Amino acid sequence: MTSPRRTTGSDQLPAHPSMGRPVLRAVPGNPEVDLPRSQEGQQPQRLLTVLLGDFWHGRREHLPSAALVALLADFDVTTVGARAALSRLSRRGVLESSRVGRNTYYGLTAQAAVVVLENVHRLRAFGARHDPWDGRWTVAAFSLPEDQRDVRHSVRSRLRWLGFAPLYDGMWVSPRPVAEPARRVFAELGVLASTVLTTTVDARRSDPRPPMAAWDLTELRADYEEFIATNAGLRDRALAGEISGAEAMVARVGLLNAWWRFPSSDPDLPLELLPERWPRRGARELFAETYGSLGPPAAEHFRARLAQTAPDLAPLASYQRADGSSGTTAGPAPR
Hints:
Helices cover 43% and strands 12% of the residues. It has helices at 44-55, 65-73, 79-91, 110-125, 149-162, 179-188, 217-239, 245-259, 261-265, 280-307; strands spanning 63-64, 95-100, 103-108, 136-142, 165-168, 171-174, 194-200, 319-320, 326-327. The radius of gyration is 21 Å and the shape is globular. Residues 48-111 form the Transcriptional repressor PaaX-like N-terminal domain. It comes from Frankia nepalensis.
């Protein structure tokens, strides 16, 4: 069977940017791209975007709908639910489709691929670096009328993804140099009553609500400690090679989804501002070890599913490690 839209050259997305501080950029303001939001539980639309971003990393070839349905079945998503997710993602501008005979294929649109890869890159890089802080704060202030609740929600979501937190309802702060991305958010969403500035805080002042009050460090510490406690056993089993097949793929996607909350709730807060024995480094090490160890068996299962309907595409599947390097599973595509 010949697969559609095999692309190479300039249409091929880069494998991974150089490792450094996570790129804190707003999701491109393209109205044709509407990625599914992070929610509790297994959401078929979100699962599809994570699977494509993780195992079909940077590739533009379309995949058979039958293979995508089979992959979602490993997450207990019904055939009806899987096909509905494909249809909805297409309507949202996340997926595009093509046909060969009676077979339908799907792949990320060019715009969605950029957003998905950027998000996955940031997730993998989060917590890996501990750069010295320059003492500067980025402040973003805005005002919106009550009847623009959808715009307000979009502003808040995108500012939080940039690493901001609300000090007050209309004043958000970040210890990172993200002034230009914040200005782009306001411009793209048409928020005219807004301003972004960079400032320092005089440590001698006794402010009733200093910038760090925007983060609940007690809750954040508890979240990190819960992540470590919940996934310690998974790491041990993964390192011992005890997880394979669908279980490895489901566990890896679940781990990535669990890690997803931290870049928004903790913009790599400078160590200078944090209590001693902060658990982020330990959580990051656990994530990196587990995510990397689950990569080979998870990718092997992804390839096996794909080989059932598109054996020519199966060898192209790969997995990414937390340090940004790529890995492939050895051997011919499973039959």
